[in-house]
Amino acid sequence: MPLPVVAIIGRPNVGKSTLFNRLVGKRLALVDDRPGVTRDRREGEARLFDLTFTIMDTAGFEDEDPHTLPGRMRAQTEAAVRDADAALFLVDARAGITPLDEEIGRWLRGEDTPVIVAANKAEGRGGEAGRLEAFALGLGEPIALSAEHGEGLADLFESLRPYVEREEEETVEEDEEDPSRPLHIAIVGRPNAGKSTLVNTMLGEERMITGPEAGITRDSIKLDWEWKGRGVHLVDTAGLRKRAKVEDKLEKLSAMDTRRAIDMAEVVVLLLDATRGLEAQDLRIADQVIEEGRGLVIALNKWDVADHASSLFNGVKAALQEGLSQLKDVPLLTVSAKTGKGIDQLLGAAFEIRDSWSRRVTTGELNRWFEKAVDNNPPPAPGGRRIKLRYITQVKTRPPTFVVFGTRVDQLPESYRRYLLNSMRRDLKLGAVPLRMTMRAPKNPYDANKD
Predict the structure, then answer these.
(1) How far apart are CA 60 and CA 9, in angstroms?
(2) pLDDT one-digit tens code per residue, 116-144
(3) Could you tell me which CATH number the domain at 363-447 has?
(4) Is 245 annotated as a binding residue?
């Protein structure tokens, strides 16, 4: 089934090609300060959060004889709009509304294609006057946008959503939905925690150099492996010491390489040394993994030689609950890199975390949960003025990321946002993976004095 089509229209040099490049994620369209660079219609597959659609860049709309080159370009633009599911009418917020903008507006009002007006070049507050002026075009509330700086994309998402989201669930990247794809897993921890020994035991060969000296591994070593018929992309990393103790340039580069490995991983295994227990540096590493939005599994290594095993496990678990308050119930497992005990459980937990990390909640299920959560615990009314939460949408996976739309959301306390996240994790069974939630309010100047 073809993707919905959105055509960008506007007079020359308002930033149509810049926005096109922003939405397709590549510099496919030529961009220059001079007007009239774009002549033919150019199409590309656009991604805006979780919306996927065909975006069409068009020539600048000019009032010229149909037989001239500008006239033929205008005919191409008109045809593009008539074939589109929605038209995105771009105006220059800093220049204000021109007579040609007004002519384009009159023509669009006579067409059947839905129109969204976007005031581009509105970075900062400099374009607000031009945005308000665009109300006079009679095509609804304009949104503020900066194609060059990527500002206003959440408002653009909200405006486009009714016209293109019908394809949303059918156009999720196949790679994200395929449970058979290789698991990208990075093993991190302090020096001498046994990371390379664990990798060697997993592979069944002495692939990594090991020894009693700390810091043998310097580069992040990437290895392709198979566990029970499932592909695993395994990365062994250099040990991470407390930053203040890192003085050697090579060790600094190794630490940067490890952090890049965390960025590229789907799930990170934080390996602890059971003979030393949980240390502050372990919590710092775990916090970095969560901050990067990666799935996290914590493994207590050297369990075969640990003293007072039961009390040690309970003590580490309690310390993690307190030290990682932003993400409760992170899996804590025991392993022996030397004997291989616990490795199957570790890999099984990593695949489960990856499944939760990649999960997409359907729009219907998500908003049924949202209505119930808000009904059970309505948001506060600071100063006697209600905060209205209207709906929620999942904008991406890996990690699951959500946007809540409503009014006065800037006054919503952090405790209420935590309530929503905790309820979501529990009720929707999203597991112990990082979740992202942002709040967005429509920018309508006429709402300023309304409840």
Answers:
(1) 7
(2) 999 999 887 778 888 999 999 999 899 99
(3) 3.30.300.20
(4) no
